[in-house]
Amino acid sequence: MTEDSQRNFRSVYYEKVGFRGVEEKKSLEILLKDDRLDIEKLCTFSQRFPLPSMYRALVWKVLLGILPPHHESHAKVMTYRKEQYSDVLHALKVIRFVSDATPQVEVYLRMYQLESGKLPRSSSFPLPKALEQYLNLEDSRLLTHLKMCSAVSKLPYDLWFKRCFAGCLPESSLQRVWDKVVSGSCKILVFVAVEILLTFKIKVMAIPQDSSDAIVSKAIDLWHKHCGTPVHSS
């Protein structure tokens, strides 16, 4: 039996007995052993599979450019990053975009916007329009009902799209969403919002712990349905 056929046999066997993640974890470990990490392959892996929790922080840091692809540079770069964090935070406080009372998730957002030259003068983002577009495709009657009730403008867009569901979904579900965001697909946020509306209708803020994983799984299915699985979905 060839090595490829052995691997395929193991994959099928593990999946049948409920251990599909075993082969995925091994594949990721092989990618992480390279002296120079392959960003494209890590992106593709993150788009296709949930990241194992023990490697999530490292992969996120590499994909976000916080750490370089070369392992030997990680310690020195992290020292520079801590100094950079202090400088950027101080700058945001000086220009009064954040204060000591600002929620941490918003602080991180403002830091990213400042460094990338996208710090807004006013809050505006296109994701709410995309939400209406895909909700109309999935359930036009629900969208019509929300508009008739003047509820569309009252949806928690800041919580969903500016904070990327931080403080809305439990951590285990949130990590699966952020795997997609970090690897280049912010549009997954739209499909999580769509699935919340489809699942709970008007009660969008009452999300029980035991339903959140199902919502995220269905949202990822919607994302695949409408966007496919490109390495860098928008």
UniProtKB/TrEMBL annotation:
Localization of this protein: Cytoplasm, Cytosol; Lysosome membrane
Gene: TBC1D7
Domain of life: Eukaryota
Record-given protein name: TBC1 domain family member 7
Keywords in alphabetical order: Lysosome
InterPro entries reported for this sequence: Rab-GAP-TBC_dom (IPR000195), Rab-GAP_TBC_sf (IPR035969), TBC1D7 (IPR039842)
Phylogenetic classification of the source organism: Eukaryota, Metazoa, Chordata, Craniata, Vertebrata
Biological process terms in GO annotation: negative regulation of TOR signaling
Assembly mode: Component of the TSC-TBC complex (also named Rhebulator complex), composed of 2 molecules of TSC1, 2 molecules of TSC2 and 1 molecule of TBC1D7. Interacts with TSC1 (via C-terminal half of the coiled-coil domain).
Main subcellular location of this protein, as a coarse class: cytoplasm
Oxidoreductase listed as a keyword: no
One Pfam family of this chain: RabGAP-TBC
Gene Ontology molecular function, alphabetical: GTPase activator activity
Rab-GAP TBC domain span: 130-203
